[in-house]
Design a protein that fits this description.
Nitrilase/N-carbamoyl-D-aminoacid amidohydrolase; 2 domains; 637 residues; six-stranded mixed β-sheet; Rossmann fold; seven-stranded mixed β-sheet; single chain
């Protein structure tokens, strides 16, 4: 449970209808399996002690007394076992029968939750045998085998020393209801919902069931563990498939397909991440009136098996990547369209380097001019070679602009920069930060002045990853009049440019692919002896795939260095070792904190995703905030 990972499982024991002894053996076997894997939470199906399809046998005193007897046996069996177990059974309360879920841990029944909504339509007739638990709350208790335990729909089961590990229970139909019990439970403090279910299988139901679980977990910012009865139930009129789903905030983390006959569906729920999502969401309003039942499960480090995406900004399959790329291009181009219209700009001025960022900005600007039905010659593309410009990037710049049909000009800034060096007494062979930044600021001055002459605006090219690292010259490439890439991370820039390359074909595709293959560089230092790029950004500040990973987890989820490091070890296993990850995470933290002053005065730019650094939008941070505590935690690893 360290770092907030709770290992949860939806279990499907083999069921024999009305044979409580056989069912108990199966339940014990799954408890043993869960204990061996150190699972925190095991959710078993609805009425799994007896079987869901007992029908009018639920009127039988023999069946009900057997269920009560084996509940005691199962409870005793959990002594010394690690998991908290949720199991379904019928129980009498005040002479009425309820479809219940018993929550059991370490030889004790923590509480019993009755089902609220009883389906009584189509193939279901639960009201024939059961009563609704609606309204049973407050101080309601039930005596089970001589012991009094909490009984009601207002129970939240909470770990004694880890408050984020708190769960509530709703049962099967409760999920399908208009007003789900889980809504109140989550607002009352439950971070996970356990649902013991017995949902029969018909065409299309599995997809709808999964959608319900995912959407509920998204709406309530919770983890959701859904376990459903398997094929051991009676097939007299219905068939059960054992479909199990575990979701977190809208994402299905684990699923056993219908009829897969998978006994345990296991993954980890990140309850600290869910708690932070609620912290951020001002529409998530807590309510009172729920009883908390504490348990003291030992804290242990959870082995993480869930997917931790190496490229969190990039969808995992090609079709989704293309959709994402097209959506981002539309957001960027429609944002720029509005700005050009509002400013009545006669031209869009853009510096072209032959690199990824300026290429994407140019592609966006071309789209925008087409939206406006304006000639592409209104785009003033300017390349400004200097000391570090290579023939490869210079050639790609010109070819790209020619193929796109935009206005293109070259302004060599070498002599202007040399003159500036003379003015400020900068030695031309001193390759320091002044040497580099003088070139960046000269280029920005040229672009701004061309924009003045043409009645245009300068289109910014810098991306989100560069903003996070402060990898931009203050009042140089840091500045523009509209920054179209400002919330697009570097790892995603590559995929968007590749998407446009595949759509283009021909010579344009060839140029775009060569740009993709060019090392990322500001080209501010002289080329090497072979005329190739000598100054490679990722050699200096670290791999962008790592920095984008750090950025996503720190901003999107507010994770601490220790957890980011641990997640990166899993995501980049076999690619970077722990020392490399720690080294570049330290670089990221230091630069992120120290470079906030550049982000505090960013030009406007369109937000395209959930992580952005605009000081007017998602990220407000003082420029003189200290990174000391973050760096201390990292150094202690």
């Amino acid at each position: 449970m360290i770092d907030g990972f709770i290992k949860a499982a939806a279990g499907v024991p083999k069921c024999t209808v009305a044979d409580t002894a056989a069912n108990t053996l199966e339940i014990k076997r799954l408890i043993d399996r869960a204990d061996a894997q150190k699972l925190n939470l095991l959710v078993l199906p609805e009425l799994c002690v007896t079987g869901y399809t007992c029908g009018d046998l639920f009127f039988s005193e023999k069946l009900l007394s057997s269920a009560l007897s084996v509940l005691y046996e199962i409870t005793e069996y959990t002594k010394g076992k690690y998991p908290v177990t949720v199991a379904g059974l019928p129980l009498l309360y005040s002479f009425k029968l309820y479809n219940c879920a018993a929550v059991i841990y370490d030889g004790s029944i923590l509480g019993i939750v009755p089902k609220t909504y009883l389906p009584n339509y189509s193939e279901f007739y639960e009201l024939r045998q059961f009563s609704s638990g609606a309204g049973i709350r407050g101080d309601a208790e039930i005596t089970v085998n001589g012991k009094t335990v909490p009984f009601g729909t207002d129970l939240i089961f909470s770990h004694g020393s880890m408050p984020e590990y708190a769960f509530g229970v709703e049962i099967c139909e409760d999920l399908w209801a208009v007003s789900q019990p889980s809504e109140g439970l989550c607002r009352g403090g439950a971070v996970i919902i356990a649902n013991p279910s017995a949902s029969n299988e018909v065409i299309g139901k599995a997809e709808y069931r999964k959608m319900l679980v995912q959407s509920t977990s998204a709406r309530l910012l919770c983890g959701y563990v859904y376990s459903s009865s398997g094929s051991g139930e009676s097939s007299q009129d219905l068939v059960y498939s054992g479909h199990c789903i575990i979701a977190e905030n809208g994402t299905a983390l684990a699923e056993s397909a219908p009829f897969e006959e998978q006994e345990l569906t296991v993954t980890e729920l990140d309850v600290k991440r869910l708690a932070r999502e609620r912290h951020k969401n001002t529409g998530f309003n807590p309510i009172s009136g729920f009883r908390r039942v504490k348990f003291a499960q030992p804290l242990a480090e959870t082995a993480v098996t869930r997917l931790i995406d190496r490229l969190p900004f990039v969808p995992s399959n090609r079709e989704d990547v293309d959709k994402r790329a097209e959506s981002i291009l539309r957001i960027q181009s429609f944002g720029l369209k509005k700005r050009l219209e509002h400013t009545n700009a006669k031209a869009a001025v853009i510096g072209i380097s032959g690199g990824l960022d300026s290429t994407l900005a140019l592609l966006v600007t071309v789209r925008t001019m087409r939206l406006l039905s304006r000639p592409l010659s209104d785009i003033q593309a300017v390349t400004m070679p200097c000391f570090g410009t290579t023939s490869r990037t210079r050639s790609n710049s010109e070819r790209l602009c020619r193929l796109l049909g935009v206005s293109f000009r070259e302004i060599n800034i070498t002599e202007a920069v040399k003159r500036h060096f003379k003015d400020i007494s900068q030695a031309p062979d001193c390759f320091d930060v002044t040497f580099e930044n003088s070139q960046a600021r000269e280029r920005t001055q040229v672009l701004m002045d061309i924009a003045n002459k043409t009645g245009g605006i300068v289109i910014g090219t810098g991306d989100l990853s560069e903003l996070a690292l402060g990898w931009a010259t203050y009042n140089g490439d840091h500045m523009s009049m509209y920054a179209v890439n400002s919330s697009v991370p570097k790892t995603l820039v590559r995929y968007i440019v590749r998407y446009e390359a595949e759509r283009s074909g021909g010579e344009l595709k060839t140029v775009l692919l060569d740009i993709l293959d060019t090392p990322v560089s500001p080209e501010l230092l002289p080329a090497d002896e072979d005329g190739s790029i000598a100054q490679k950004t990722e050699d200096l500040v670290g791999p962008y795939e790592l920095h984008d990973f750090f950025l996503y987890h720190m901003l999107r989820f507010g994770e601490r260095p220790r957890k980011i490091y641990r997640s990166a070890l899993i995501a980049f296993d076999g690619i970077y070792d722990g020392a490399e990850i720690k080294r570049w995470l330290e670089v990221f933290i230091r630069r992120f904190f120290s470079q906030q002053f550049k982000r505090s005065c960013l030009p406007d730019g369109p937000k395209v995703g959930s992580v952005t650094l605009s000081p007017r939008g998602d990220w407000r941070m003082p420029s003189d905030a200290s990174a000391k505590d973050w760096l201390k935690e990292l150094s202690d690893i």
